[in-house]
Amino acid sequence: MNVKTLTSAIALTLAAGATQAETGLIVGIQLEPPHLDPTSAAAGAIDQVLYSNVFEGLTRFGPDGSVNPGLAESWEISEDGLTYTFKLHEGVTFHDGTTMDADDVVFSLDRARAEDSANAQKALFAEIKTVEAVDPSTVRVTLSSANGSFLFNMAWGDAVIVATESIEDIKTMPIGTGAFKFSNWVQGDQIELVRNENYWGTPASLESATFKFISDPTAAFAAMMAEDVDVFYSYPAPENLPQFEADPRFEVLVGSSEGETILSTNNLMEPFTDIRVRKALAHAIDRQAIIDGAMFGLGTPIGTHFAPHNPDYVDLTANSQYDPELAKSLLAEAGYPDGFTTTLKLPPPSYARRGGEIIASQLRAVGIQTEISNLEWAQWLEQVFRGKDFGLTIVSHTEPFDIGIYARPDYYFQYDNPDFQKLIADLTAETDPAKRSELIAMAQTIISNDYVNVYLFQLAVPTVVKAGVQGIWPDAPTQAIDLTVVSWSK
Amino acid sequence: MNTYRNLVIGATLSGLFVIAALVSFLWVPYDIENLNIAERMRTPTPAHPLGTDHFGRDILSMVMIGARTSIAVAFVAVGIGMGLGVPLGLAAAAHKGSLLDEVIGRGNDLVFAFPSLLIAILITATFGPSAVNAIIAIGIFNVPVFARLTRGSALSLWKREFIMAARVSGKTTVRISIEHILPNLSNLLIVQGTIQFSLAILAEAALSYVGLGAQPPTPSWGRMLADSQTMISLAPHLALAPGLAIVFTVLGLNLLGDGLRDVFDPRLRRGRT
Question: Quick one: closest CA in B to A220, which residue?
Fold first, then answer.
């Protein structure tokens, strides 16, 4: 009986493999988007589903983080760096058939930077003075001050081009210009996209794409093993990866992400106001143990708030090498020879929950007692991010090039250094690449020397892919799962 | 001897865990506060009889201290249930048919109307997850269990002649409840208490499993299970140890409860032989 079942199972598998031509793709992701408007929420899940697939911006990120032409096929920058003239692709239509022209660009950018705009990244548009439509395929953007990263800013999911005609229902019925059209959203389960047959660029190879929301690691494992999903982006349980690697049915891509995982420190709370205490924290922590214990070896140690794969990265890990004795003497010097007690609030991801237990143990070894509380995301956002009611917390900052948050004294870790704020202002105004690199290096060094937070490791993004799927981005330069170039091998 | 089989097996099993919990106050094989990442997920060896977990902690030590957490939570929770439920039940029985009886009765119905774990999750979610809130949550749904049991049994006692005699001699309702009714209920309460104790251990494990019980680094069986869930195909012993600890403790307490009932209730004993 067993043999018979087995044989028939094999026969079935072979038959299926032989006849079924794969045309669709099912992608597992951890979180469900709260709604479908990338221009009015910070939730990364919105961009994961829609960026590049449904919505496009003037420029777009490539798989390596480079900024490439998007809806703008070319642009000219004036001598003083204040005027950008974008030449738009012609013949681009939105999914509802309306034309995408300069007026839509003006509308989108004006909407994003408006006083009452709900855009989560309004800083991206801060320097824009005016946006004008010169003719239907030309847009001129004038800046109030030069901004070396303007084209980079325009590639963000928060800066995509939306249509005047369909803005009303964007949260449930997103209409973009991308290679995929939104088709259906089964709340709590999945979002379905279908190929846009009238796409202006190279059409997608996939006929359809489905994003399934699976946040539970066990369920993710089961879904992948049963081949219910073809790709699992940012797979939640690193401990299972060796199993997928050993299985010929799957491939594991371990990419770098923009996620600087840090032990965030409330710089306005006693005793963290004392730099010696913050320095003690940095030396009390063994990063490699956290990477091994919490991430099963996935991750790169960092010494500042910057992604190691970025060419401008400065390796400052030596600034805070693991040295518990030094940490103890620093604490004694700061007046805490017997340590102190603080809170450690942990959001749900395993890097935080597991990392938190390891950090608590390492801090205990130098005399710092932590009261751990495990919070759900909503509670974490309310208590820690908005309420600033925490001593320590662990979180991964996944936005690209986000060192600028250290120039915001009201940001949740409350670091207030006028020199640093001046430096970031200079950096924003600087357009010369060499000078920018220099300023970026200085910024990294300042926050490292000030021990604002304990910089733990760069989050790795493991993606489990079924054999035969090609074109998945291994790295995550932005929160996107670009399916426009994904295909099944024949 | 056969009559006492349940009692002996039950007492042995649950006694084992109580002893493990008590011993853990004085001694555990390894310090579980210091994580040893290099030694993680080792299979059982003589040095680590139950292996090590994903942080390199000795699982035997974790299970022993986990027993402490489980037993302490269950003990206090059942204590709350008895401490509130029994007086309420006595009062309701003493004033049968009065408004007080109605209020207590309907209050019990209200708590009973919700699944017990749902109430516990509601409480811990509102007031934040911690061992104390888990105790309160589990304690609250133990109250009506004891209140109902006490009221029902006390009502039948109130009709008995010795109670009549006490009333005639002028004792107040409160004194009769405490001096005559309560002692006659004690066997029943002990048996029910044992059963509730096992349910409370299960409830604590369930709450910890969903992250609403004792917070790390305090070990708890439920959270050990939750932590080992994704690693079950890599290292099954991680889940096996706390899982079996829960099974054996609950089984032991149930057998103990059954055994005690057999001992305390002569009618049952006669029926069985």
Answer: B230
ipTM confidence score: 0.74
The answer to whether A239 touches A255, Cβ cutoff 8 Å, is no
- Facing A372 at nearest CB: one of B54, B215, B229: B215
Q: Can you spell out the DSSP letters for A54-72?
A: TB--SEEE-TTS-EEESSE
Both ends of chain A: CA-CA distance in Å?
A: 35
Backbone angles phi, psi at A214, to 5 degrees: -135, 105
Cα A423 to Cα A427: distance, rounded to the nearest angstrom = 6
Contacting residues of B for A361, CB less than 8 Å apart: 33-35, 55, 217
pTM for the model stands at 0.77
Q: How many distinct helices (H) and strands (E) make up chain B?
A: 11, 0
CB B76 within 8 A of CB B135: yes
Is a pLDDT exceeding 60 seen at residue A4? no
Question: What pLDDT digit, counting tens, does each position of B15-27 carry?
Answer: 999 999 999 999 8
Assigned CATH topology for domain B71-272 = MetI-like fold (1.10.3720)
Domains of chain A and CATH, by start: 25-54+178-256+462-490 (3.40.190.10), 58-162 (3.90.76.10), 260-458 (3.10.105.10)
Q: Which residues of A touch B211 (CB under 8 A)?
A: 374
Residue whose entry in the numeric block shows the structure tokens 């995982």: A261
Q: What does the block give as tokens for A268?
A: 């306005």
Specify the pLDDT at position A400.
81
- Select from A296, A343, A361, A389 the residue whose CB has the most chain B CBs within 10 Å, as the one to mutate to test that interface: A361
